[in-house]
Specification:
Blueprint (H helix, E strand, L loop, with lengths): L1 H17 L8 E9 L2 E9 L4 E5 L3 E3 L1 E5 L2 E9 L8 E11 L2 E8 L2 E9 L1
Antiparallel strand pairs: 1-2, 1-9, 2-3, 3-4, 5-6, 6-7, 7-8, 8-9
Length: about 120
């Protein structure tokens, strides 16, 4: 009897691992970035492998990690403080709770508070 239960449990766990469960971050988000005395609005379209940012700040992010309710990404973008078209690195770490997102965008020229709601 013990072997039967053990076999059923292992089969159940394997079937859960085989499921293709979509991350809670996937979808379209209305995003507000606040920092450096300014507020910027954008729309983030997130799928399992990339994030497209449109609005006041446009960017295509391909270094995206979705894990449960956590989302993080990293990308290069034009440095707004540089007239020479230099790029700078930006990193984001955040969480999703239902239809709300919150996190921080880390940049070389200051950090931004990020809030968002699902569209």
């Amino acid at each position: 009897m013990f072997r039967y239960r053990e076999t059923i449990l292992v089969a159940f766990c394997c079937s859960l691992l085989a499921c293709d469960i979509q991350s809670v971050s996937v979808g379209e988000w209305n995003i507000t970035l606040e920092g450096r005395g300014a507020i910027q609005e954008s729309v983030w379209t997130i799928n399992e492998t990339s994030l497209l940012m449109t609005g006041d700040m446009a960017l295509m992010v391909e270094e995206l990690e979705l894990s449960g309710s956590r989302i993080s990404w990293s990308s290069s973008m034009a440095n707004p403080d540089s007239g020479a078209g230099e790029n700078t690195r930006v990193n984001f770490n955040g969480t999703v709770d239902g239809d709300q997102m919150a996190g921080t965008l880390f940049t070389q020229f200051g950090n931004y508070t990020v809030t968002g709601s699902r569209r």
